Amino acid sequence: MTTTSISKSLLTSVLSVYFVLTLLVTCVQILGEYYDTKRMLVEELQNQQTTFSNSLARSLWEFNYDQINATAEGLISIPAITGIIIRDDTGKVMVELGDAAAQFLLPNNSSEVFNIPESSGVFGYYAPLIFEFSGQSSPVGDVTLFSNRDVAIERIKVSLYFIVANALIKSTFLIVLFSFAFSRQLHRPMRDLTEQINNFRLDDLDHSRIRLHDQRNTEFLMVEQAYNQLLDKLEDYQHDLNSTQRQLLHANRKLDEQNTMLEQDVANKTSSLSQVLLDLERRKTELEQRQHKLIREIRQRQTIEADLRDANSRLQSSLTALEQAQSQLFESERMASLGGLVAGITHDVSTPLGISITAASFLREQMQSLNQALNERTLTQHQFEEFLLTGNDAMQLLENNLARSSELINSFKQVAVDQTSESVREFNLKKYLHEVIHSLRPRWKNSQYNIELDCDDSLTISAPAGAFAQIFTNLIVNSLLHGFESQVTGHIQISVRAIDENKLEFTYSDNGKGLTTEQLEKLFDPFFTTKRQQGGSGLGTHIIRNLVTQTLHGSITANSEVGKGLTYRFVIPVNYR
């Protein structure tokens, strides 16, 4: 059996711990140097952006592309800058030079500066470009300057050499020092102790004692004293053992005589008790078997009862959790739909408002010029007529775009309020459905899709309007996302007709790609979607069915074939006139 030296093992453990700590400290120092250099590079990027921001803003405002390119080439020639991206106020990239990060990391029209986090070794500094003109600040674009890991490493190369060399020198010195100390204080005394213990002889205990040299007040001296005391006790035990052996031999002889007598008595009594013992053993075995059988049956019944109680408790908890999850998912889908309306209507409202602001600014400049000419007595009839003509056009532009914004906001306001409320109110069905469609129009305004609504103009109903808004919002969004996928054109037909005094039949159909028979069977199942990997939740049609059957107390069916679109028919009991 091979043995390992304690001194070597201890020395290896100490040096291993030291090497690990030295490696960790060295890595921390290197990382500190790297991040400090990276921070200084970001500050340099910020200083360069501050220096050239006014020139770039003016160039973007004047559409001076030559000046923009010249400025970008000047910036990329700076050693700290390895890449640059300049965009206009629409987010279009005007210049992209050098090693730059992916554009999806950049914000869209952000008005605040921030640092671009490191990605694939590239990091940078983003800042918007603001042009000051006539006391007004106008965002004209943004600029992002990039640097990379190679530049930072090149700057800290000398520091890295110094840190590594320092760690190697300290490690070498400590290895030599520890090796000498462990050899002198541990390895040599241990070797001397081992040699003397190997000379142990049981028949010569006096010469087997340990006598170590050059050991004062150490653990090895304690081992020497303990070992010699053990030999003293062993010598005493040998004397006691010899005396005890002699007494044991005498006792064994008497014990043999008594055993012979007892064996005779036992033989006589055993023959009479054997039959009784056999009968008792047989009855004991039968009783034990019955007892084990009863215990097994009781344990099985207790286990079954516990399993049933546990299963019942889990089923009750699962049912409660499912009901809560269904309610939460329903509310999340409703708010997600409302969020889509907000995003679309915000984008559409921003365009006419922007045009109105531009027209108002232009009209103010014209009025200031006219007022200056009037004060200087240089106003001509031609200038005044030109002002009236352009002013009339600007006012017409303001009225049209503000009216457009008001129309969009009113349509969205009513639909948004209804989607967050379940209250019953009286409303014109055709007009309300037009408002729902109008609020969703931003989703397909750049596509050749159209929606046709066939409904009586005078049909007024009393019902929860939010449910109708949610149903038709989900139907139209499903057609746009799933039915018209990969289609350039699309048509949606919505028709409403009365089938008796208090029932309305709604028919919704599109000419999309349709569904297979297997997909149609799962259409209303929760979490069923054809776009599982693209963010689809699979709750849209499930929510439609719940709204029709539970909220509106109606019924709904669907028909579809591949390539022939999808048709929904649902009948709802309502009060109408």
**How much helical structure, as a percent, in the residues?**
55-70%
Beta strands, count: 13
CATH superfamily of the domain at 6-167: PAS domain
In CATH, the topology of the domain at 6-167 is named Beta-Lactamase
Level-1 CATH class name of the domain at 6-167: Alpha Beta
Total DSSP helices: 10
Main sheet?
A: 5 strands, antiparallel
Mean pLDDT: 77
Order of strands, main sheet, comes to 2-1-5-4-3
Summing up helix and strand content along with how strands pair, one would put the structural category as: alpha+beta
The fraction of residues in strands falls at: 15-25%
Shape: flat
CATH architect. name of the domain at 6-167 = 2-Layer Sandwich
Unreliable segments of 5+ consecutive residues: 414-421
Distance between the termini: 103 Å
Order of helices and strands: HHEEEEEHHHHEHEEHEEHHEEE
CA radius of gyration is 47 Å
Features:
alpha+beta; 577 residues; Heat Shock Protein 90; flat; five-stranded mixed sheet; Beta-Lactamase
Report on the structure:
It is a single chain. The protein has 577 residues and is of the alpha+beta class. Among the domains are: 6-167, Beta-Lactamase (2-Layer Sandwich), CATH 3.30.450; 424-577, Histidine kinase-like ATPase, C-terminal domain (Heat Shock Protein 90, 2-Layer Sandwich). Helices cover 63% and strands 17% of the residues. The protein is built from ten helices and 13 strands. The strands form three sheets. A five-stranded antiparallel beta sheet has the order 2-1-5-4-3. Strands 7-9-10-12-11 form a five-stranded mixed beta sheet, covered by helices on one side. A hairpin with a 2-residue loop joins strand 9 (489-500) and strand 10 (503-510). Helix 1 (6-61) crosses helix 3 and helix 6 crosses helix 8 (465-483). The chain is flat and about 150 Å long.
